[in-house]
Amino acid sequence: MNATFDAIIIGAGQAGPSLAGRLTAAGMTVAMIERHLFGGTCINTGCTPTKTLVASAAVAHQARRAADYGVRLEGAVTVDMRAVKARKDAVVANSRNGIENWLRGMERCTVFKGHARFESPHEVRIGAAVLSAKKIFINVGGRAIVPGLPGVDRIAHLNNTSILELDTVPQHLVVVGGSYIGLEFAQMYRRFGSAVTVIEKGPRLVWREDADVSTAIEEIFAKEDIAVRTGAECIRFEKRGAQIVAGVECASGDPEVAGSHVLLAVGRRPNTDDLGLDRAGVAVDERGYIIVNDGLRTNVPGIWALGDCNGRGAFTHTSYNDYEIVAGNLLDGETRRVSDRVPCYGLFVDPPLGRVGMTETEARQSGRRIRVGKRPMTRVGRAVEKGESQGFMKTIVDADTRQILGAAILGVGGDEAVHCILDTMAAKAPYTTLQHTMHIHPTVSELIPTILGELGAVM
Fold first, then answer.
1. Given 36, 115, 439, 441, which residue is catalytic?
2. Could you give the 3-state DSSP secondary structure of residue 107?
3. Shortest CA distance to 131 belongs to which of 104, 107, 111?
4. 10 Å Cβ neighbour count for 60?
5. Where are the alpha helices (DSSP H) in 256-311?
6. Which of left, alpha, beta for 170 (phi over 0: left; psi -120 to 50: alpha)?
7. Cβ neighbours of 187 (radius 10 Å)
8. CA 222 to CA 201: how far, in whole Å?
9. Residues 6+ apart with CB under 8 A from 332
10. Short-list 115, 137, 186, CA closest to 6
11. Using alpha carbons only, what angle is made at residue 251 by residues 249 and 252, rounded to the nearest 5 degrees?
């Protein structure tokens, strides 16, 4: 079968379905191609399943702390991992089915299941069918990297996808990778009942963050008896009976860690190596990411790349914003650019980290004169009242322009509270606008104006 459409969208991840909705509403015919699961990484192996599991783990952790709040529970708190997994699977299935049903019921949208490969700049093959369109949007996401560590090919190992299928609690989970994905699973499974060790090659956890953030997270983990081994320069694996032994050779501590399960969380790669991009002439960089301009257009006229595969963001919200940029430019006469967005993300350990803009380190390295405001969560009434006072809040301001350059809120509600800073930055308003705004009491957000009124000396 050969067919012609106004637009082809390859991949039903975060950006694809919404773009299909806008294009079809504008009167275009759209072919939506999905080779596996509707909803992409976020719905199937990312945000939705992991945050559902994080919620279950948080309940178990809170139950164990019940006595701290004057609540007494009879007997030990136990976790039914099969029930936890069933709840996660139900949430995921509901979201996935909702997206698929929406697309299949969408007027002027035709859904194709199969592996898409380019035949030319305007033709895509799916099995025996060749589809053509003047506009093609690539939204194929990414997948976990398997690092070339010695012995990794001789052990069973988990990644962010396969670990979601566990219906038992590992005796000892060894997490290789001390960044966002690895840390979320580490704390989650510790709360489910596993012994957990995090192995990180670098000198500290989440090296992209300021050192004070890394230190605070490590302190939070230590209170939950999560072992952390940083500076692991020679990671290797060996199977010994029922155990998997990871060699680390850190400067201090045992040179080996033995566990029952190993999770590899050391990075991701784009799903671009089997699309036939060479036949379309689409350029990629040395890591396989599709090269795009500020409007997400590739080097080939009529082809765009959205989401994780373009290397311009690795989050659901950046993918969705990619859709908004493309739709706004194509359909609304706007001139939206990737470079206009303020970088922001969350690390969903507990308490969570909300991050926006520059780190303090980046701000200093930029040559700007800066002022920094900081307050521990022990001085945030809402956090103390909730019995969750770990972490801190920090803002970085340009001393000359009075613009907020960045912020980090590691603490209860930090992933939500940081948005008032994000919105102020997006509006390009001076920090005094936020400083002089009245906030609701008792909240975490109410302390942000206070911090901005107590900024340190110019540095």
1. 441
2. coil
3. 111
4. 18
5. 277-280
6. beta
7. 25
8. 18
9. none
10. 137
11. 95
Q: Are 411 and 349 in contact (CB under 8 A)?
A: no
pLDDT beyond 90 at 253: no
How far apart CA 396 and CA 402 sit, in angstroms, is 10
Handedness of CA 211, 213, 217, 220 (dihedral sign): positive
Which residue type is seen at 322? D
H or E stretch covering 223: helix 211-223
pLDDT band for position 217 (50/70/90)?
very high
* Statement: residue 234 has pLDDT above 90: no
How far does CA 185 lie from the centroid of its chain?
Answer: 13
Res 172 pLDDT > 90: yes
Q: For CA atoms 202, 206, 210, 213, give the dihedral sign.
A: negative
pLDDT digits (tens, 9 = 90+) for 174-209: 999 999 999 999 999 999 999 999 999 999 999 999
Give residue 294's pLDDT: 98
pTM exceeding the 0.90 threshold for the entire prediction: yes
What is the greatest pairwise CA distance in the chain? 69
% the chain with pLDDT above 90: 96
Q: pLDDT: is 253 or 208 the higher one?
A: 208
Residue 441 annotated as catalytic? yes
